[in-house]
Amino acid sequence: MQHIGGRWRWRRGPLRRRWDVVDAWLGLVTALALLLGVPVVGFSVGLATYGSQRVERAEQLAERQALTGRLTESVPSDPSATGFTAGAGQVPAQARWTGPDGRRHTTTVQVDPGTRKGAAVTVWADPEGRPAQPPMTTAQAADDGVAAGLGTGMALGLLVLLVRWTGRRYLDHVRLAGWEREWAQIGPRWGRHHI
User: Fold this and answer.
1) Residues 144 and 54 in one domain
2) Staple partner for 123: which of 69, 128, 155, 178, CB 3.0–4.6 Å?
3) Are 153 and 129 part of one and the same domain?
4) CA distance 32 to 164
């Protein structure tokens, strides 16, 4: 046979059926969707998510202010002494600061192991001087964009493959039913021949 793979479905001939052409088109559309559509959609969603996270970060920076506080306790050099895993990046510690209204506040901040009592730390507060979470970093915004893009791309890829699988099952069912109908017409004729 000179034809390779499924190329015979694209050529005219007595064995080619309408469902074979539909199957070939379904395969082509699936391949194009996986090679072009999934990456484009994933990249677009990731970029849009990153952009919206950057806007949210800018809003957080506008709403919150960084104040200088002082640690009220020393943090051991070994995080496991405080119940944290050795090798942890930062550990929680208590810090005190004076808000814009002159009142003293205490909150928990993340510091490096080994930081001493009285060390200056950055404390984030809302406009009323209440403790607030630190604003999102650019790296966190990028991580959210990558996660959204990859998640969307994988979900779309799985959906495309599911549509392809469902389409193939349906086409196989239709082809089998057609073969059974044709065999019901031709099969009885074979039994009449005597040699």
Assistant:
1) yes
2) 69
3) no
4) 12
Which residues form the domain of 45? 7-58+140-188
| pLDDT tens-place string over residues 168-186 | 999 999 989 988 888 888 8
For 117, phi then psi, to 5°, come to -60, 140
Non-local CB neighbours of 49 within 8 Å, separated by 6+ positions: 144, 145, 148, 149
Cα dihedral value 46, 47, 49, 51, nearest 10:
160
User: Which of 25-39, 111-125, 141-155 is the least confident region?
Assistant: 111-125
The length of the chain in residues reads 195
Tokens of 192: 């009449």
Rg (CA), the chain: 33
82 and 125 both lie in a single domain = yes
Lowest mean pLDDT of 20-29, 38-47, 91-100, name the range. Answer: 91-100
Query: What beta strand segments (E) does the chain contain?
Result: 65-71, 91-98, 104-111, 120-125
56 exposure class (CB count in 10 Å sphere: 0-12, 13-18, 19+): middle
Which of residues 111, 134, 157 is at a domain's end? 134
Q: What is the pLDDT of residues 60-69, one digit of tens each?
A: 999 988 888 8
pLDDT on residue 2:
43
Q: Count the domains in the chain.
A: 2
